[in-house]
Design a protein that fits this description.
Growth Hormone, Chain: A, 79% helix, globular, 18 helices, mainly alpha
Length: 461
């Protein structure tokens, strides 16, 4: 299947809206909701997020491999999309709806179940969904269009989540009960809409039956193939390092706005300045990737993102009246480069999966994207744990003016840490060799093998 019409492309992108809304609201607001509304210590929430990342080491590969092995009339991926609707909706509502009567210990347990349960349910959607994109087209550049629309839908959902977050932040001025009430209304509505969008994809898409049953029956061998794939191994490392830095936008923007800039009302607008160009720049990156190549363009975006975040350290020495304009400009530039990465990285990862088929003769998109997804989420978890402990050690106390040590810690984590991570990622990624010319050679070999099944696969990588 090479040609994919706009009707299928839109159906493929649709679940990204709900996923983007839910993920951003949890990533961006749950930490603050827990520390400032529920009065849970930042370090405790850091441990909860850290435990959820450890669980991801089990849930991500499990969902990826089981979806590879799934059979039935709905195919390998759409059956998982359908199964994800109820648990995803339920856990999203759960994490924002702890009962007032809970003791502090039970409240921590409630949040632990909610956070871990939410990310587990999200895995049931995200891993099969992104895996489906690699199956819909084998065209080197058409894949970028599919993933570009998925990225645009995801960031559009994230933009909508900013509106919900602003409504919750306004409720904090009224009181904890107002926050809880509004959170319940937001999560119920989002759960219903997200379920409908997932159903659209289930009904509107079709899968390749010839891909079913083409995976190693031994799961450990399947994931060993992922690590032994020289291209996958490099991109896993790059993805992990990159996303340690990238997690700051969701983890610390609220803290930057409230405790550094003294403008908590601007937090949503700063994030909006990041997400709008990330969404709208997708049509720009697609033709540029054809001209300059997906690999070189993604490496460029890593450097640009790192420099954008690193430049935010300057707010420590800027006059108060210039801090906000500089933050908005740098967030805009970082968002532009994020649009490139969100469009091209899964497209490149799909090419890596085709290389695995060239070597092994198997189709295990779920196993590969489970590994990539785990690298992304574990990096986010590392950043959240790190931020929680550093803030606690620096002497952070919620809802009061912070001392200089806390201010420097917040800005250092928000600007300096991403600068280092993104530049290291770009330096590592320069060794990636699966460019368009190499891909077209292996694609021709795979097509020949499809016409002539007797054509042998290579014995090794």
């Amino acid at each position: 299947m090479t040609s994919v019409g706009w009707r299928q492309t839109l159906a493929y992108g649709a679940p990204g809206v709900g996923a983007g809304f839910m993920m951003l609201l949890v990533n961006l607001y749950v930490m603050k909701f827990a520390t400032d509304v529920l009065l849970i210590a930042p370090a405790v929430m850091g441990v909860i997020f850290g435990i959820s990342r450890v669980w991801d080491a089990v849930s991500d590969p499990l969902v990826g491999y089981l979806s590879d092995r799934s059979t039935g009339s709905l195919g390998r991926r759409r059956s998982w999309l359908l199964l994800s609707i109820l648990p995803l909706a339920g856990m999203f509502i759960w994490v924002f709806s702890p009962p007032d009567s809970l003791s502090q210990g039970m409240l921590v347990l409630w949040m632990a179940i909610g956070v871990i349960g939410f990310y587990s349910a999200l895995t049931m959607l995200v891993v099969p969904h992104v895996s489906l994109g690699a199956e819909l087209s084998a065209d080197y550049h058409l894949r970028s269009r599919l993933y570009g629309l998925r990225h645009g839908a995801f960031t559009f959902g994230a933009i909508l989540a900013l509106g919900g977050m602003q409504w919750l932040l306004a409720a904090e001025q009224i009181g904890a009960e107002a926050v809880r009430s509004r959170a319940f209304e937001i999560t119920v509505f989002a759960a219903i809409v997200s379920g409908a969008l997932i159903l659209w994809a289930v009904i509107g898409l079709r899968e390749r039956p010839d891909f079913q049953g083409r995976v190693n029956p031994r799961p450990l061998s399947a994931f060993a193939d992922v690590w032994q794939n020289i291209h996958a191994r490099l991109v896993l490392i790059v993805t992990f390092v990159e996303n340690i830095g990238g997690a700051v936008i969701a983890t610390l923007t609220l803290y930057i706005a409230q405790y550094v800039l003294g403008r908590p009302d601007m937090a949503g607008l700063i994030i909006l300045a990041y997400f709008i160009p990330s969404t709208l720049s997708v049509p720009i990156w697609l033709p540029l990737s054809r001209r300059f190549g997906k690999v070189r363009l993604w490496m460029f975006s890593l450097v640009l993102t790192g420099l954008s975040f690193g430049s935010m350290i300057s707010i420590l020495v800027l006059e108060p009246q210039t801090q906000l304009p500089v933050m908005f400009f740098l967030a805009f530039v970082a968002g532009l480069s994020a649009g490139c990465g969100g469009t091209l990285s899964p497209s490149i990862q799909s090419d890596i999966i085709d290389y695995d088929e060239y070597v092994t003769g198997e189709r295990k998109e779920g196993s590969y994207f489970a590994a990539f997804n785990f690298a992304h989420k574990s990096a986010t978890g590392v950043m959240i744990v790190l931020a929680g402990f550093i803030l606690q050690l620096a002497g952070f106390e919620p809802n009061v003016d912070q001392n200089d040590v806390v201010i420097y810690a917040i800005v250092g984590l928000f600007g300096g840490f991403p600068l280092v991570c993104y530049l290291i990622s770009a330096w590592l990624f320069r060794r990636f060799t699966l460019d368009e010319r190499t891909y077209r050679t292996l694609r021709s070999a795979l097509d020949e093998r499809g016409v002539n099944p007797a054509s042998p696969a290579p014995a090794s990588q």
